[in-house]
Each structure stands twice: as C-alpha cells, then as structure tokens.
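Inputs:
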Amino acid sequence: MSTTDALARRYRLLLCSYPPEYRRERGDELIGTLIEATPPGRAWPAPAEAADLIVHGLRRRMREDATPGLAAGLRLAGPFALALAAGLAVFLWLYAERGSGRTIAPLAYATWLVAAAGTAVLPWRLARHDLVAAAVVATALLPPAAALTGLPRAPLWVVASLALCGLVALAGQVADQPVAPRRRALAGAVTLGMLAVLGVRLWWPTHPSYYGPALRVAGVVTAGVLLAAAVTARRLRTRQARWALLALALPAAWLVSVDATAVGAGPGAGRLGQFLIAASTVLAAMSWLVNHRPVAGTRAVAGLAIATAAGLSGYFWLAGGPGWAYPGWILALVAWAVLPAHRARAVTVVALAATLIGPPAYQVVVLVALGVVALAGTPAAGTPVRYAVPAGAALVLLTALGVGAYAHNWQPARWRDLVAAPSLAVLLGMVALVPGVGAGWRGRDTRRGRVILAASAAGVAGLVLPPPSALAVAPVAYVVARRRSRVTAGQRTASVTPSTAGTSSPITG
Amino acid sequence: MTAPLQEPTFLVLTALAGGPLHGYGVIQEVSQLSGGRVTLRAGTLYGALDRLTEQGLVAADREEVIDGRLRRYYRLTDDGAHVLDAEVQRLRQNATAAAGRLRRRSAGGLAEA
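Outputs:
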C-alpha cells in the first residue's frame, strides 16, 4: 500500500504540468488510471510515461491558458508584420547600404524579399512557412556572422526589429492564411519600402547612413503600419485588436528613437533608454491582457522589483562600487527566497537604508524606487518566492553584462569591460518600474497602489531626467492618483457597506 | 467530410464501440485490438478522450469508486459511431483497391514469367 501511495504522490507531482483547473477536475481519475496501468511493485513512474504526462500537460496548458483573442490577434498582425519586415528590408537596402556604410545585412534583406514574394505566390504552405523562418534565422545570424568574419554588421535595432517581425508573422501563421492577405503583405512591403525611400530623399537629402534619418523614417513608417493595423482591427473584437497591435508594437519598440543620440552619455540618454521604456510598456500591457488580476499584478511587480534591484546591485558590485548597499540588496534577494514575507521586508528596509549612503545619485534613485515598490507590493503575510525571483535577478545581471558588451560594440577586450557601463545598465530598472506604473495606477484606490505608482513614476523620471526630478515626481504622482481614485474620500472614511465591499479596493493586503 | 483518423483515435473509438469503458479499460482493449502493438499511455489517452469529448464523438458515462480510486466510464455517442463507420468504409475501400492492384500485379507477373 505504501508503494502505491508513493507512486500516487509521484504521479501527482507529474500532474503539475497540467493546468490547476484540469487537475482539480480530472486529477483523481488520471491517478486512478495511471496506477492501474502501472505493473504492481513499481514505486517510480516509467520515464516514458512521465514524459508523456508532461508533454500532454503542457499541451493542455497551452490550449487552456491561451488568452482569449491572442491567436486571432496574431493572425491579424501576421501579414502586417511580414509587410513591415520586407518593407524595412527594401528601404534599408536601397537607402542605407551605400557608400562607406555597407554591411553584410543585404544577405538577410534578400531573404525577406524572397519570403514576402514567396508568401504571396507559392502554392505550398510548407514552403511559404519555411521561407519566413529562413529569413528570421538569416537575420538572427547577422551579428555572429559579422563577429566571425570581421565584416561590418547592421545595427542591433535592424536585427531585432526584423527578427521580431518575422516571429510575429510565424506566430500569426501567415503561411496558412488565404491568398488575399498574403498578397496584401507583399504589396504593403513594396509600398512601405518605396514610401520610406521617397520620404527620406525628399526631407533629408543628406548622405545615407543607418542612424539619423534612416532610423527616424523607419519609426515613422512603422507608426503608419500600426495605425493601418488599428484601422483594420476596428472591425474586430477589441481583445483581438489589442493583441494584434501589441504584437506589432514589440518589433516597433526597437524603432523608437526620439533624439537618436548614440549610447553612453549618462542615464536616460540615447536609444537604449527609449527602447527600454517602449518595450517594457508593451510587455506590461501584454501581461495585463494575459491576466488582469490586480492583486497578482502588484505581487508580481514587487517580485520583479526586488529581482531587478538585486541583479543591478550584483552588476554594480562587480563594477567595484563602494559601500554596503549592493551586498545589502543581494541579502534582501536571499531573504525573499527563503524567509517569510515580514522578515524579508525587514531585510529590504535595511538594504534601502544602506542605499542612501554610498552609491551615486542616479543609482540611489532607481534602487530606492525599486525597494519601495517591493515593500509596498508585498502583503505582510506571504510565503517566500523560491525560484522565480532569484532567476529574475540572474537574468537582470546577465542582461546588464550584455549591455556592457553592447557599450563596447560587442568587442570587450577584458571581462572588466562588461561592467564598465553602470550608467547604461541602470536603465534596466525600467523593466520593473514601467510595469510598476501600470500596476500602481490600477491599484490607485488604495494607499498601497498609490505608493507603488509614486515610487515607480519617480524612478522612471530619475532615469530619463536629472535624478533630483524624482523628488518632485513622486508626490505629484501620488496626489494625481488620489484625485483620480474611483473611491471617493467620503467612502474612504465611511465604514465599508456591503454594496461597496465587493467592488472597491482591487488590492487587498 | 472528415479527415482520416489517427490510429490511436481510431483504436479508442473502436474500443468504445463495444460498450462503455473506463480509462484503464480503454488501454487494455486498445492493446488487445492491436495485438499488443499499441500501448496507449495515460497522457495520450486522456488527450484523445478530451478531444473526442469536445468533438462530441465520446461522452462521459458513469462514475464509480473502486479501492478509493475514481473511475469514469466513457461511451461512444451516435456521432462517434457515425464517424467510426465512415472511417471503416474508407479503410475498406482503400484495402479493396490495394488488394485488387496486388492481384492484378501477381497475375501480370505470372504472365510475364
């Protein structure tokens, strides 16, 4: 009997790959069948049986957790994404790839043109699919190919926006769509490319290059595509339309360039900061569409904040920053992973205090903002977050090292070069602070939500404006949120009546 | 009207054509039907049962608790019987056509020899 119990326990563990709803409904039945189908005396599931359960569980999850409207939205975005990628390829090939600015990028541009043309005319679904996939691979191979051959590479924004467009086209199953949208994608690509070339010639008749006019025109043209997609999407249900626009906005975020300054001139300056704001706004909006449960939202943002603070601190520490603040944040991370919430909060407060002495002002602003978001977003009684938060911190640290490599044009001479760009790496704070603004605004009916909003907004301001601006932004954001709160001051002071108890206060402790 | 059924799906429907069965019953029956060639794993079986239930070809029948474990029985619906019948017709046609060609081939082979 104890063998069977152990077996049942192990099967139950494997069933964790299934969605919780399904497990509640069908778990006992599945365990019964599994135990009946296992030869007596076995205490461990057979590896093949285990693999089968995990695969089918994950498949079930993908089907059930697929957010409503996502698949339809992607199908709508697919042709637009392909048109955008091929159009960008035409434009950049004709405009930027001349004179001394030549790179190896035309190899990838050619694959995009073939993909757009093939998608429009080829009768074989599989061939159409493979052409788009080949273009994505060719684009992704540009940076390593350039590094290996020593030839000039295309800028990162080209590689990233083209590859992301291709992924959206693949996810939207452009290859499976009727012939009309596929033809429109080709026509759109040609039109976009020509319009962009014409525009750049008319308005900026200067010498061609990948930066300046090229990036700005690419951004304007992409904004036009988003607008066209928005107009098309009006006929569809709103959720699908939102997903379509967000899917297109992800590659478009790489083309956001307000001032097109090169990188490295302190926090907030340059393309990286603008891209990070745009991309994290898109990602935050996506996560809001996936699950809009405000309570989960603030907790997730709190976890994200502590992970980002610890990851950045690890980077600053490697860079040789002085003081106790950095080890303090790493201690706070450990506390989050192993201690109950009230203890973890206490350690976080200590790290916050240590941050005020030592690090430079631009780091203080971001770390304090992240710390306040983490403190305000966690309920007093909570369980430790074992794996997600440390994994997030490790990811932030690795990304920061990647930013260091980026700052050295991907050619760091020594490993210390990787940590030589703290004023650039600090911009990664956006990844937690932008979602913080969203989560805080949704929770503005409570003090907890308003504090998250104020701290996040102050942190973002401290990153893009001179750091002291954060001091002015925080109270303004708090007051605005309070004034726009859906719960009036009268309701706040009055005792909670049954009619408001269910509707007010989306964030409860 | 329908695409050809996958072999596990075909075998599950065939197993249920004999009467309602619970999960392990289907596994045993399929193994017997295929002469021991196909042993369905639980994840695959329930994936197929869920899909067939959604398509209305199979329905949950009754539940019983044996040794503290839940057994849910599944039965073939009329739609399921219809789809299985169409598949049997298709397979029979294919088999007849193939057998005819083979007969002609061996007859031709004899004439050449």
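Remarks. Residues 7-112 of chain B form a domain with the Arc Repressor Mutant, subunit A fold (CATH 1.10.10.10). Strands of chain B lie at 21-22, 58-66, 69-76.
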